[in-house]
Amino acid sequence: MLSLLMGLLLVLGSSLTVQGVTLRSFGSYQDIAPSPPRSQHILTPVLSALARGDQQAAREMLDAILRKNPMLVAAHELDGIMRANAGDLSGAEQALRQALKLSGTPRAIHVVYGKVLFHQGRYAEAEPQFQRYLRVAPKDVTSHIYLARIAALRGKLEEGIRHLEQVVPTRGEQGAQALLQLIQWYIAVGNIDLAQQRLMFCDAHCQSLPGYPLVQALLLRAKGKTEDAQRLLATLASKYPTFPEVWIELGRVRRELGDFQGAKTAFQRAADLPDADPIARFELALTLLDNRETSQALEILQGLVKQGAFPDAYTLLAKIQASEGQVQQAKTTLETLTQKYPDFAEGHLLLGLLKLGLKQPKGAKQALTTAIELDPRLAQAWIHLANLAAASHHMKTAKTLLEKGIQAAPDHPELYYHLGLIHEHEHEWEQAAKAYEAALQRQPDFAAAMNNLALTYVKLHKNLREAERLMRSLYASRPQDPLVMANLGWVLVNRGDISEGLPLLENGVQALADNPELHYFLSVAYQKQGRQRDARKELELARKFGLPIEYQTP
């Protein structure tokens, strides 16, 4: 069962990870709230002490004010700001929560509170704080920037891009950082032309930032100039050793070039920085897995999940747990993910796949249904829901599900392939052929669709030349596959070339002796040669191993 579970969990490949996406910090704890309250005369001495750098005096005066004026909103706001800038995020959270409780209306302090929560890794709690402030200040740059980061951490890069597009161009440091991040994300989604166009808006100040040569390196990598990108990134790492994004991108390029030890070193340097993005530790875990250092990777991911990190940390942890035989732990990890990030569609998809492997069809159906409600483009969810329906002999429902999936994700070849399988099961050969043809239009090297379309053409007694071309192409790429060998033989027999086709069929049957269809094919071939005794023997073997009902006696 374990191999099945891993197959289900890994079906999405790397599509769930945020590889290739760096999440710029847009500042550290020290500038969590650069603008303290100004309207309260009683706070003037505290602000004056802060202005001259006397943190201790400011702290003492503010504590005294809070004791005498516990209902003063601005005092709690300033208390939260001072604690946040001092690195006391827990104390800052308490102070800001009290300020919000007393104020009761959306205000800029929501943004500060959101930042405090974000820098504690509590992204789900931070998100509504920024959203609340956008209701009264829809163009607030900071809110859009942090919402963009949260969206990207959830794997919703397009949503992150939309947030940044709301605030670019914006003048100043923050605007330049947002522009560079937007360009980087355009590169990540493959929109190189738009990235280059946006780069033209980068003014002299923008070009002076370390993020400017960083995006130039990313453009080099996107254009296939990986070695050039590595050299530029290595230079940047020497020039800006405390800039985590440079180390992260250098690690990615080194990993791409097969230098796993160099990649590991780069990610570790990024992870060790005080303002490191959590993605650095995630990338380090990925690299450790590449080096088969599973226990260390597991420890890092467990730490990220304990912190309440982004969804990809949960999904990768669940995959490792499943591969280590810790299936129930993997299930718990995914259930925690879907509770913490209920709108993360891929989390529900993976949970559904895991439950399929655990033979929990009801729970699997519920999770997969939630996944497509959140993101109808998830082809695997449609496919497995259709398979569940087909397993219960609800073939009409299975067809409907796959057709809806095709409407939502019309370029996904596997949806057409599985629709072809359903039509095959119902002996609807013309519709099956059309479905396989559609799959191959979208992925010409789709081996299973090539095989099935060729056999369907034989079943329909048409397009036999194309059937031969498909099977010869498939056989050229898989000469040791006995099923492909036998099916090519079957096509050749039906094309009238028994002399070439029969040995291929015989060799395939010898390797797959319990395959009823191949025994049937060989029976037909022998009959065409007039070898009636051999034909009857093969037909008996076909029936013994469960000959499908659609095959008639030769």
Separation of termini? 39 Å
Supply the number of helical segments.
Answer: 32
For this structure, the CATH topology of the domain at 446-553 is: Serine Threonine Protein Phosphatase 5, Tetratricopeptide repeat
Low-confidence stretches: 1-39
CATH architecture of the domain at 446-553: Alpha Horseshoe
Q: How much is the radius of gyration in Å?
A: 30 Å
Describe this structure in words.
It contains 32 helices and no strands. With 554 residues, it is an all-alpha fold.
Briefly, what is this?
The chain has 554 residues and is an all-alpha fold. The chain is 73% helix and 0% strand.
Question: Secondary-structure map with pairings?
Answer:
Blueprint: H1 2-9, H2 44-51, H3 55-68, H4 73-85, H5 89-103, H6 109-118, H7 123-136, H8 141-153, H9 157-167, H10 172-188, H11 192-199, H12 204-207, H13 211-222, H14 226-239, H15 244-256, H16 260-272, H17 278-290, H18 294-307, H19 311-323, H20 327-340, H21 345-357, H22 361-374, H23 379-391, H24 395-408, H25 413-425, H26 429-442, H27 447-460, H28 464-477, H29 482-494, H30 498-511, H31 516-528, H32 532-544
For the structure shown, list the relevant keywords.
single chain; 554 residues; Serine Threonine Protein Phosphatase 5, Tetratricopeptide repeat; elongated; mainly alpha
